[in-house]
Sequence to fold (229 residues):
Amino acid sequence: MMKEKLAVVAVSGGMDSCVTAAIANQTYKLALIHINYGQRTENRELKAFHDIADFYKADKRLVIDFDHFTKIGGSSLTDKSIEVAKADLSNKEIPSSYVPFRNANILSACVSWAEVISAEAVFVGAVYEDASGYPDCRPQFFQAFEKMVDVGTKPETKIKIETPIIYLSKAEIVNKGVELRAPLQLTWSCYQNEDEACGVCDSCAFRLRGFQQAGVEDQIPYKIKPKYF
Fold:
């Protein structure tokens, strides 16, 4: 069946955004967007984005460079003077990896492109499980942003902000990816390494625990592979 509707999907190169793209691909033609924002693993994430875009044969793809995040600082992902903390999956505080208001910046670029190419939706792979640390991953943030989009775009523009995995656990995301045959082996989640995933940063830990709970082997290379479950 030919897909007539078009959706913009923010693809970081990580597991969550890859599965989100797989979900969007069921009913929409894909326009994939990636933001370089000076993160430590910028080059590796960009490679993962293009690998995922190639997998889905996405003709429409856009890469944007945001250099202001490194100038603003305040995150261990964009400021080399701040150490990337080791994983603490029980932590309820905002971690040093939080990039201040990053999702609002990313969503703004997504909506701008969506309006130009007449896309009906913007898909984001936000996960509520991360929300205790990242305030811009909460459902109410995306609900509020959609209202702002309605006010701030042309009267005829109607763009939905879709967060299809926001209430899923990492294990459920892995299972959904397997179900939809998403290319999880092409994704990259590590906060600090570009050759072998460190296995000990928060992002690696959440990812590994998800695969371990799902009983699925994670195929990307790790420097060490602790048991988190």
